[in-house]
Design a protein that fits this description.
The chain is mainly β. The protein folds into two domains: 108 residues, no CATH class; 311 residues, 5 Propeller (Tachylectin-2, Chain A), CATH 2.115.10. The protein contains five helices and 29 strands. Strands 14, 15, 16, 17 and 18 form a five-stranded antiparallel sheet that branches. Strands 5-2-9-8 form a four-stranded mixed sheet, with no helix packed on it. Strands 10-11-12-13 form a four-stranded antiparallel sheet, with no helix packed on it. A hairpin with a 2-residue loop joins strand 27 and strand 28. The N terminus is likely disordered. The protein binds beta-L-arabinofuranose.
Length: 465
């Protein structure tokens, strides 16, 4: 029996506060009201309580089942519950609410046959997230990720027609990344939204918040940030033409700047140091001073790696991490080889059992494949030996990896295009990305075991106090 919608909405208003119900705001397009069920061992039924829509989900213990409803109108609230909850399923609002559009915030996590819950990928479903960087502090794993906003413009095109399209095309490479935001977990499954770390509007030299990298040192927390310098569509276009005319292939890296924001706490506030640390104007630096990756070596020296568009470099930092301390250095391959073939961006350094790993994205903007690859060395200064891909191509035009060890397990974070978005439609966007995670494994020789993106993600850590 269908219950009167208005009556439900009135009585339901209390639930908005009590149950964390999500409001749809100001948009006529409702294609993505729904979510996913993760790893359900048995069939379950989900109810959207306002519209009284029942959704039957078949068993899918090793996978993720998407669902959505369209029987909802502008301004309505919606709230999903699991009707038959004998199977250890719970509705989670991953990382809080997003009051914009689109809204795809519901994840239903179920226990598999072993009583195990899985994160599901992407790990956050209430917003687009990109370019992960991780830090373990106490019992928490903190995730810092850029928030992609371009899709909001794209998806509202039906409302504002050509004006929105023009606006979208004016954004840099379809990106409109307004801020880096903080999330944290204690079990790899339940994520809590902490708040913004750095927003481009607050930093004079930033145009957008592109990829960042977090480190702890001297009792403080340093979030290295980067931004394209100007209109990168023009910038990249001009560079590509010059490069083609000179027979050098297509150059795709933007002119970019890298800086640092500092906090006394992993939860912020992070205060930008006031000026970039390195930029395309720094003597000896490449144009693409983007995608910072900081690494503190055994002697206490912190190095900043960065790069994009086929070039990468690194430089030592002062002990307070607020300035560079030495010359810009080139990343050398063993015996003159190229240590990072097909490098596009996303350099990342980590060390394990005395081996240094330099990973990066091979994604080619404009082409679908976006694998992550890596090189190794026995010294931070190289020479580096190229190894192979470590993560297969993802389904969106960029990728950005981050590796961390948390509670004794190794993880690889990256982003995919697995949230509903316009990238599969007529208007292609690079910017409907969403952070995902895999277990990272090494073989007996210390080689990273190749992996591919999965829908199920990683198992819950059950030793949470
Ligand atoms: O998010 C903007 C840029 O896209 C990042 O800086 C790159 O790593 C790529 O993910």
């Amino acid at each position: 029996m269908r219950i009167d919608r208005k009556g439900l909405l009135t009585t339901g208003l209390k639930n908005v506060v009590m149950l964390g119900v999500v409001m749809i705001s100001g948009c006529a397009d409702r294609d993505f009201v729904g979510g996913v069920v993760v790893g359900n061992d048995k069939a379950i039924t989900i109810l959207e309580t306002y519209s009284q829509t029942f959704i039957d989900i078949e068993p899918n213990p090793q996978g993720v089942t998407e669902f959505q409803i369209d029987d909802i109108v502008e301004g309505d609230a919606f709230d999903f519950t699991v009707v038959d909850n004998e199977h250890g399923c719970s509705v989670v609002d991953n990382a809080g609410e997003y009051d914009g559009f689109p809204n795809f915030g519901v994840k239903v996590q179920c226990e598999d046959e072993n009583g195990q819950r899985w994160s599901g990928n992407p790990i956050l479903r209430n917003q687009y997230t990109a370019d992960p960087t991780l830090l373990v502090v106490g019992d928490y794993l903190y995730l810092y990720a850029g928030r992609d906003e371009t899709s909001f413009i794209h998806m509202q095109k039906k409302q504002c027609k050509n004006q929105c399209l023009t606006e979208a095309l004016q954004t840099a490479a379809n990106f409109e990344i307004t801020g880096i935001h903080i999330y944290r977990t204690q079990n790899m499954v339940d994520w809590e939204y902490v708040g913004p770390a750095v927003e481009a509007k607050d930093v004079s030299w930033m145009r957008q918040t592109w990829a960042s990298h977090i480190v702890a040192k001297n009792g403080k927390y340093y979030l290295f940030t980067c931004s394209p310098a100007k209109d990168i569509i023009t910038d990249v276009g001009v560079k590509s033409i010059i490069s083609l005319l000179s027979g050098g292939g297509i150059a795709i890296g933007p002119s970019a700047l890298t800086g640092v924001a500092v906090s006394d706490s992993p939860t912020g506030p992070f205060i930008d140091s006031g000026a970039p640390l390195v930029s395309y104007l720094t003597p000896g630096a490449i144009d693409e001073v983007m995608d910072p990756a900081a690494f503190t070596d055994d002697d206490g020296t912190t190095y900043l790696f960065y790069g994009g568009g086929g070039h990468a470099q690194y430089v030592a930092l002062s002990d307070d991490l607020l300035s560079i301390n030495g010359p810009i250095m080139e990343i050398k391959g063993i015996n003159g080889s190229d240590p990072m073939p097909e490098l596009t961006e996303a350099t990342y350094i980590h060390k394990r059992n005395g081996v240094y790993y330099l990973s990066y994205s091979k994604s080619k903007i404009g082409e679908a494949p976006s694998p992550l690859a890596y090189a190794t060395a026995d010294n931070i200064h190289g020479p580096w030996t190229y190894q192979e891909d470590m993560l297969g191509a993802v389904d969106i035009l960029t990728n950005h990896g981050a590796i961390t060890t948390y509670k004794g397990k190794d993880y690889l974070f990256y982003h995919t295009g697995q949230l509903p978005g316009i990238h599969n439609g007529a208007l292609s966007s690079n910017a409907t990305r969403a952070v995902s995670v895999q277990v990272l494994e090494y073989d007996d020789d210390g080689q990273i075991v190749f992996t591919k993106q999965t829908a199920l993600g990683v198992p819950e850590l059950n030793n949470v106090e």
